[in-house]
Amino acid sequence: PAPRHSRPTLHALLGAASSEPGTALAMLTQLLDHAPFTPSGAPFTPDGGTFAAALRGCASAPGRHREALAIAVRMERWVREDPKSRATDTELARALTSAIAACDKASEPEEAVRLLRRFLAVGVPPATAPVTAAICSCRRAGARGVEQAAELLALMKSRGVPRSAWTYNAMLEVLACAGGMGGRALALLRAMDADGVTPDAVTYATALKACKPTVVEAKGMLIGAKRAAAQRAAAELATVNAMAELAATASAASQAAGAEVAGAQAVDAQTAGAEVEAAEAAEAAFTAVGRRAAPGQPAAGRSRDDGAIASSAQAIAALATRGADISGSTPDAAAASTRTPAVAPPAAPPPWVSALSLLDQMELRGLPPSRHAHNAAIELAALGCDVAAALRLVDRMESRGLEPDGYSWASAMKAAARAADASAALSILDRCAPAPPPPRVPGRATRAE
Questions:
Q1: CB-based contacts of 114: which residues, under 8 Å, 6+ apart?
Q2: To 5 degrees, how large is the angle CA 280–CA 281–CA 287?
Q3: Residue 320 pLDDT > 80
Q4: CB 393 within 8 A of CB 378
Q5: Average pLDDT over residues 360-388
Q6: Quick check: 416 pLDDT over 70?
Q7: Which pLDDT score is estimated for 176?
Q8: Would you tell me how many other CB atoms lie within 10 Å of the CB of residue 131?
Q9: Is the pLDDT reported for residue 302 higher than 50?
Q10: Residue range 332-343: average pLDDT?
Q11: Which of 17, 234, 269, 344 could form a disulfide with 23 if both were Cys (CB 3.0 to 4.6 A apart)?
């Protein structure tokens, strides 16, 4: 005869059997369809804990989602037999969460969401754990998963289901896996604060990961950085060439100046006497012309000069008037044209730039510094081709007592490579090099020796 056990004992046996694929399903089928296992000999009546025990191990390894779905079918059938009393079983949430997690483990987000909706349709009230597990599974569905996860989050709000940090972390993970959702991730953080849910270190690290630029945006920034590096190299080369040309010109000018000085000295010696004689003759000529003019009468040449000056003044005035007519502007219009144009408001920084301030928000909330969050921020700086920001974040890690790991240095080197900054790359290589071993003391053997 088959041994008869109490309900807690059978639950323990089911939980142990769930560690082996197929064993829990076979045992559950035997309990429900065949021999009575109860002490009284009556047929076994399951409850929510029975299915939770059978599903416990299905999410421990991939590939067991079909077994979990088969158990979920028996559980759904059991609920439909008496939905008023069975749909509110508190253990159903745990069993449903395990089944959804098994689908997630097998990369079947559509099955996970469909399973949740099936149980909601038979009257099982939504709970935090199964809905959050379904949101988490949506990270494997791309852009469609984002919309499905957003619908589930809206369902939780409309039905008054409590949201936890795990719920928002799962939604942020969905946005991070979809890519290009930095704006929505930052908006979700604000909604989390408005909902009264306190973020944790995982929240900020996942939000930083969600703020990565898309492939197209990252490629555009890379092309811009390469172009700027080429312009800097061309400017440096032009500066070097200009300095070399200036040095050659200065040398030639120095030689020409020496030759000119020597020639000028020779010419001055020959023409000094001639210039003195010419000056004396000119002075005598001007004296003679002055004596010919009668006292009180203006010289004829002076009146002609006055007429020329007056004519010139009139011509200048006419030109000024003509220029004003051609331009068609008045002094007021000219002043208005020189006014400073209205400055447009600065554009909002992209999400991968705004996300760097999340590290400061972590510290303001009293959260301990996280190496994972800093590495995510350095990766953002690398994708943005900002090697200076990447190095500042590495310095920040060290100032907070966090030792940069290989991922930190690799991301900083990636920033230098994308920015085409060879000097920064060499500096990073020097900083991340391992320290030399201590000098060996003569006469003292090491452990290896």
A1: none
A2: 90
A3: no
A4: yes
A5: 91
A6: yes
A7: 93
A8: 25
A9: no
A10: 51
A11: 17
Q: Write b or e for each residue in 79-108: b if 16 or more Cβ atoms lie within 10 A of its Cβ, otherwise e.
A: beeeeeebbebeebbbbbbbbbbbbbbbeb
Smallest Cα–Cα separation from 94: which of 149, 58, 124, 56?
A: 56
Predicted confidence band of residue 250 (pLDDT cuts 50, 70, 90):
confident
Name the average pLDDT for the chain. 81
- Report the amino acid identity of residue 413: M
Question: Exposure of 60 by Cβ count < 10 A (0-12 exposed, 13-18 middle, 19+ buried)?
Answer: middle
Distance CA 76, CA 33 (A): 16
Tell me which amino acid residue 138 is.
Answer: C
Of residues 313 and 424, more confidently modeled: 424
Task: Using the predicted structure, report yes or no on whether residue 305 has a pLDDT greater than 70.
Answer: no
Is residue 208 pLDDT above 90, yes or no? Answer: yes
Report whether pLDDT(90) > 70: yes
| Cα 144 to Cα 10, 148, 210, 234, distances in angstroms | 41, 6, 16, 47
User: Tens digit of pLDDT for each residue in 346-356?
Assistant: 566 788 888 88
Distances (CA, A) of 156 to 111, 150, 166: 19, 10, 13
**Alpha-carbon span 384 to 214, nearest angstrom:** 11
**Chain centroid to CA 75:** 45
Dihedral over Cα of 117, 119, 125, 128: its sign? negative
Residue 31 burial (10 A CB sphere; 0-12, 13-18, 19+): buried
Residue 247: both structure tokens together: 């040095």
C-alpha span between 273 and 187 (Å, rounded): 93
Which residues, other chains included, contact 171 with Cβ-Cβ below 8 Å and sequence gap of 6+?
135, 149, 150, 153, 188
DSSP code of 141?
S
Q: Cα separation of 282 and 383, whole Å? A: 82
Contact 152, 113 (CB under 8 A): yes
Higher pLDDT, 252 or 373: 373
* In contact, 140 and 109? CB cutoff 8 Å: yes
Token pair of 449, please?
């020796």
Judged by DSSP in three states, 346 sits in coil
